[in-house]
Amino acid sequence: MDMQTTIAAMALALSALALVRGEILQRRRVSEEAQQRAVEHVREALEGVLAVLEHADARLPAKGEISRVILDFERTCRRWEQLLPTGVKHLRMSVRHAMANCFGPPASIAADPRIEDLEMRTFDTHWWDIGYTYVEQAQAHLGRWLVGNRRKPLVVVRYDQWRSDEDYPSTNLA
User: For residue 98, which of 45, 138, 58 has the smallest C-alpha distance?
Assistant: First the structure.
């Protein structure tokens, strides 16, 4: 093989490699953009949940308001769940648990629509504070990831683990 043929073959191989690499980078970028869009939607839906929780200690929201907000949140999560980073795919369940501990059946309507007629649990500021703090913290994590380095993994602790860490802090010493 002469020098010109060798150079042409190398150029062809480098061009093919560049095309493949460009395609991989393009797919990764689309994936990152889709992930970002999913996190934005879930974070936005959490705003509605926080709005219901925010002043519940002063004015208890109606059952229908709680059910509507949790259904909206769950619908958004189900729509975007496949695109969410692995470390936050549990948010739909975690937020439902936090809300159910605070309000009882109206927050669990997405899990079982038959409970719509059940009464709310007696309001307890302890569970309200815990639920509000968890949802606020989850939303803050999502927001920091959106404006920070999105190459770092996005992880929000599951509600049950968060409760365990709070209830039994000595068992989680590092």
Answer: 138
